[in-house]
Design goal:
Distance between the termini: 47 Å
Order of helices and strands: HHHH
Oligomer: single chain
Radius of gyration: 26 Å
Mean pLDDT: 81
Structural class: mainly alpha
Helix content: 55-70%
Strand content: under 5%
């Protein structure tokens, strides 16, 4: 995938590269969180479609006195599996498409982060003292807006 940037990394200052890297890392963390949620939802949709059998079907081999702790199958289905197989199967295609879309976006953000990091390292390698320029301005609180 070819990623194009609104502002090429080679034209950015080290402060701008630091900021870009910080923002890209945060964006990638958000993507990872969304992909985790989409995948979990996919897992649930598949689990609903392939419902497990009821528990306690072989009472002659189960420990005695566990009947009070054995949940009813209908209760498990209602609370854990939710809307039922047909609703979940309808979501599978949409969830898979979302995961593919998020994967492509994650790849683009990762490539942008890699490009910013490579440029940052290239600049610092050529002039190590440049890394410290502008750090005070980045750490300073923003000046108040004039009234």
């Amino acid at each position: 995938m070819v990623v194009t940037y609104t502002h090429p990394v080679s034209g950015r200052s080290l402060s701008e590269l630091r900021r870009a890297r910080r923002l890209l890392r945060a964006e990638r963390a958000r993507i990872v969180q969304w992909r985790r949620l989409v995948r979990a939802r996919l897992d649930l949709a598949i689990a609903v479609a392939a419902q497990p059998d009821a528990l306690g079907q072989d009472p002659d081999v189960l420990p005695t006195g566990t009947e009070a702790d054995l949940p009813m199958h209908a209760e498990l289905v209602e609370h854990v599996l939710g809307g039922g197989p047909s609703i979940e199967l309808d979501r599978l295609q949409a969830l898979r498409a979302l995961d593919r879309q998020l994967a492509r976006y994650e790849q683009s953000v990762t490539e942008a982060l890699d490009a910013a990091t490579t440029e940052f390292i290239r600049r610092v390698a050529s002039d190590p003292t440049a890394m410290f320029q502008g750090l005070d301005a980045e750490d300073a609180p923003p000046s108040p807006a004039p009234r």
